[in-house]
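subagent[fold] <- orchestrator: predict structure for attached chain, return tokens only, no commentary.
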Amino acid sequence: MGISGAQQIAASSAEDAAVDARNNGKLKAHHRAQRQYDVTANLDNVQYLNDVQEQENQQDVLYTALLDQWSSDDAELKKLFAKEDFAIEDAIIAMHEGSYAGTQTGGSAARLAGASARKAGMAKSRALHNKMMAVDDVNRTKQASWKQAKDKSHALHQEVAFAPVHGFRPAAPALESKKSKAGLLLGLAGSGFKAFKQGKANKAHKVKNPNSKWWDTADDTGGFGAEFSTYTGVT
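subagent[fold] -> orchestrator:
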């Protein structure tokens, strides 16, 4: 019984130790997964903050470039306005110079004076037309630049519009439960009972004393053996 019971206890202890070892392995792996999750989430957050700062810098660069482009367009418009103003001034000078008909009189002098005034009016009209068309061109150019900058600004914003989503943390592992001790107890009880039966079966018989009386030969259960019938004649 002792050897069998010890074997059962050792086997149960070994199974419990194996379950503990597997559960410890799962818990350690879960702990490492939690640490890795925290490190990854922290790195993602840091990268996102860096991207936000870089996006703000790019927005400033884009806005400055748009202002520079508009300033350049305005400068070109001013140059064109100055050119056309000089053209108008030249036309006015030419008109006054041509208005003097010299020694001519009558209809010829009137025609010459009218021609110079007419040329001056045409030059003014052309200059004003060029100015208005230049203003329209510059406005269209500014509008196109603004739309392009707006699209780029929106694209930059979309790159950092959403903070990183780290997802769920790693789920805790399912741990194994140890085997119930009821089986061990039943096994030990069975081994004990088996050992008891074997011990009882292997018990040596009592040696009879030929000089003993019948009352000395009573068995363990309170009955009497064959000697009782010998002394009493009762069978």
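orchestrator: received. Logging for downstream: Helices lie at 2-98, 107-159, 182-201, 226-232. The two ends are 41 Å apart (CA to CA).
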